[in-house]
């Protein structure tokens, strides 16, 4: 019985070490050398319209990005709405439908690009 417990403990330790290695590998650079994938996760902590085509977004984990829209669809005085596709993560420009609500009419926004921000860069947008 003691040998069976020891074998089980070794298997659990090896499996745990494998999970740690997998988690660390997932956070490093991608196979093609590009930076690791980043995502914004809802609920979002801060959204701020910078101008009619630019939106600052930060989630509760501190991940922040500037969403550059393809046209003028945002207003400082009206709410911005998010409709997510699948999960509530925004990892690429097609993961959510964003609308500026001007008056009572939603104006669709199309994300042209996402500019991920470092912790230092976030300070100038907060």
Describe the structure.
The chain has helices spanning 2-27, 119-122, and strands spanning 40-41, 44-51, 54-59, 64-69, 80-84, 89-90, 96-102, 105-109, 111-117. By secondary structure, the chain is of the alpha+beta class. The chain folds into 2 domains: 1-36; 40-122, no CATH class. The strands form 3 sheets. The chain has a 4-stranded antiparallel sheet. Strands 5-7-8 form a 3-stranded antiparallel sheet, with no helix packed on it. A two-stranded antiparallel ribbon has the order 1-6. The protein is globular and about 35 Å long.
Mean pLDDT rating: 80
Question: Strand percentage, roughly?
Answer: 35-45%
Largest sheet: 4 strands, antiparallel
User: Looking across the biggest beta sheet, what order are the strands in?
Assistant: 2-3-4-9
H/I helix tally: 2
Q: What overall form do the CA principal axes indicate?
A: globular
Low-pLDDT stretches: 8-28
Number of strands: 9
- Helix fraction, binned, reads 10-25%
Separation of termini?
60 Å
Query: Measured on Cα atoms, how large is the radius of gyration?
Result: 21 Å
The structural class is: alpha+beta
Number of domains as seen in the coordinates: 2
Strand and helix order: HEEEEEEEEEH
